[in-house]
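tool_call: predict_structure(chain=1)
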Amino acid sequence: MDNCDLEKLSCSGGKLEPPFRPDITSYKMTVESKVSKVTLELLTSDCAASYKILFGDGSKTIKLNDGLNEVAIEVVAEDGTTKKYCIVFTKLSASSAKLCGLAIEGKFELYPEFSDSVYDYSSCVPADRDTVVIQPKLPDKNMQVTVNEEDSSKAVSLNVGDTVVAIKVSSADGSNSQVYSLTITREQIPVPVTFCNVRDQMKNECPVSLTAFYRPISINQSRPKHIFSASYIDMLTRRSRVDPLSESPLIDGWKVTEMDLDTKMSVLSVKCFFAYRGCESILKLAEVVSHVKDCQHKPPADLDPKEVTETQWYKDNFESSSNLEIETKHTSEVRNWEKRLQKAVGKDTVDELCTHAEEQLNIYKRHLPKPGDLMQYAEGQSPLDSLEQAAVQYASAIKLKPRESRLHYLLGRTLEEHHYAEEMYGLKQKDTGDAQELGSAKTAGRLDEILAVCKLHGFTGTPTLENQLKALDMEFHQLKEQGQSTKAEYVQTLYLWLSKKVKKDGQFSVANEESWLHRAFLKYLDAWSLSEDSWEYNLHVGRLLLVQGKSREALQHLQTALALRPTQPALRFYTGVAVLQQEGNSGTQEKVAALYLQQGLEYVMARALMAAGPDREKLDHGDPLSTVNIQFLRGCFSLGTLLTKNAPSEKAMSSEHIYHILVCLAGQGVSRCVGRGEVGQQLEWVLLDSHFALLQALIQQPTAVTGKQAWISQRCQALSALIRLTSIPPCRELLDMQEKVCQIGVVTVPRSSHALCLLGVTQLAQYDSEPGSELGQVALADSRLSFQASIELEGCSQAGDPPEKLTKQPWWQERLAQKVRTAKQAASKSTGAPGASEAGASGKASGPGRGRGTPGRGGTAAAAAKSGAAPRGGKAAPAAKAAPPPAARGRAGGAAQPKAAGKASSKTQLSPSKSKQECNVPQTKTEVIEAPSSSNTKLAAPAITNPRSHAPRLGLARALSRTEDTHQQACSLYQEVISMAPEVHDAYIELADLLVKTDPLAAVEIYSRFPLKPVSEQTFDDAFITGEIVRILMKQELYDHILLCPNLIAYGKVMGLGCLEKYIDVLEGKFKTDLLKSMYAGIHGKSVEDKDLQDFFRFKCWI
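tool_result:
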């Protein structure tokens, strides 16, 4: 009697959503535009029940209007009980032009999720997908859809970067249309490509990665057009808001997407990645990755165990039942830091604890920050919190089963991941007791203290890291002799802290007992001591012993592991690294080492190319063959160095190929770094070293290569920019590299105004590193000549004879003398009579190994190019890891070098954990680059006219500001720079710094000329200008000056009231209440008469 359900409900012309069930009362149905009516079919469950259609005339035939039509059906049971069913009919308008769904075949995710009223989408696909099929879904079969003006079923060819797909929908009546835009991004090709045409290679290589542009971006108004891959220009402009190649400030709208270049590049011909193995396929760039899976020449997936078992070391130590004796002695123990982690012991079993740890690790990996992300996390929500929890779970599991070796190993991997979390992603624990952990302010304070100690011991200017350490060592011994042990201990702390910055291979991190890497090493040792026959534990112990310079002990572990697992690529690779670090290697041993190293590198290449999507990068930084593992990259570099000396065997990579891969991998790694920690700086070292090795290799190519001079110049400009913008602090090795690069650039195109300007910057940096030395004075004179030559050549052709101000420089004259000596030596050899005085001169050069170019404003080492004043805000930028001087110092890198400043800076200083191959850029006999003569200028490059620029004037002003007698000339040049480039902050700051001591108001007048943007758009650099105006006027007690109030307001709005507290106290003491009221009102954007402010003013007794 009370049954008021429908037994059946259906409609003509379509299906209900969801399918009918008596207990479901709400339904939807969409019909095409040509459907004008539908008929309902209904049946009640109880024959005594009745129903009523509440729509229109109440009949079963429903006449539909365009759009929504809501039909209610009321069912009445025999006893009067009612139930209402509702159907919402959507009749498509014949003029509607909207999709009801959009997808990409293969289920690739759309961002954002599809909505018919959202018209712009993006999606990412693997690098090996060169075509996709778009799947637009139409709500009305009478509507029409095209994809890129073609049939929607046709596959869309993808560019190598971004492809914009236009999906055009036309209404059923043809009156309207709508375009949906879908940008499909292919993942970056993980390894470098080689174009078949050298001109294509020159034209389409990114200045950072030296491989094909990926999602190219050009800098607006750059001439010639400066183009970078998107991820690299984003990385560089986060460091400094300037054009990396020209150092011009970036204007609003500076970023221009080069979609046409992406399209043109994608069809250019390239070689297979495995051409060195015999593949002769010529492919389009867009198809090269998809070719890899079917390439018959790709490296074999399974390595031949005989390449291990037939070696002499294997036969000597493992062919019989006896094993290689390992000198490592270790006993597992529980350390204090490990006890602090063991706080999850409770009801959970070991398996449950491990499961929880894996879950936390997955959460950590999912939430790792990306470059540009805001590093703000709620309490307990940081990825580092998840990583910490994983360590707690594993440590607690060890407490339950202390003899379970696998648990010790897993904790070691987690602790090693901590190292990457902090040094690559900038994640820091809020409360840390580690004395080595410093906030940015504390770091800046220590650097200030170190620079003060340097000045006490005669190291003025911008001393290199080596000189800073020398000054600290002198101060330490002096304090000890004076009996000031407490101060001496503090200086020793500074020395140890700074020493961390000098290593570029992680040696300090493993040696430091408080570091995550050292703790990970101990856990690997614990695991190995409990299971000495594990190849995996031997591998990790061995590779971290290598970092510490214990190559013989490391080799014992690695060979033991390789004997257990002969085909494991990582074991072969690290065994090869260890072999190269042994003394007295035979040619056979070096060949085996080269084979093992190449097999490891090929495994990484194949893994990167074959894996698709998320599988390509699993974020397992502890993987020994991870592309951000510095040991792996340095091992590859040692292979390149080895192949530079020895001709590669059949199917072996060339040294240039290896360096090219390293530039690509290191560049990708640096662009992924969020913080400027140890890992990022080590990756930068690999990038710079490999860049420089490729530059040397290009110099040695036959002169007949078309456009070689232009290509060398292009590479020099790119590498010089990377050095200027590096986060590595000034050190001797970097100074040497920068000078060589700039000299090569000038020798290649002697009349290039920009190249001469870069050389001048480098020479000025050399002076700043040793201002009191004779060579420092020579460098200062040379820098002025270089800047003057750069200015004089503006508007002139780059073709012609070198300018006089270049040819009179000592390093250039030494280069010419070297050419004469080399020619005489060659002549004497051809006659069979050796020339005693010229013996051994070939390939060498004298002349200073000086010079690091100054980073552009915003770089961490920018002080080298500035006036010697402290960086803005009075704080030094945090120092970074660097390395000891290379053996390369004092040799020519295609150009002659000036003489080294002293024995200490010219000697080879090898890290004990690295072989010579690892530490040095390969030193082979290099070709001396000649300036293009009038006869070959057309072959090298078309004649180019030097543009006018503020940069050499700014450089010359800085050089002239270094000596008091030329200050007036410097001031005039600064004024010229301001008139040419009024947006360059440095010119105002450095000119005002020259004037402030003698004429403070003149300095204020200079600052006031800076074209400030509206306060809401001002940057911290702008705030420095307003802050200096405030500082000077307050110091001069000019409280009524017309510029004081507006600059107090501007400075406070950008930096906050906290930065004005000391000035507010002074003004209150001087009873400048009207000024204070105006300042507060201005900062808060209110009137002085505002009621709330009036109450505040009364509280402050200003009224």
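agent: Residues 431-439, 833-941 have pLDDT under 50 and may be disordered. Proceeding to next step.
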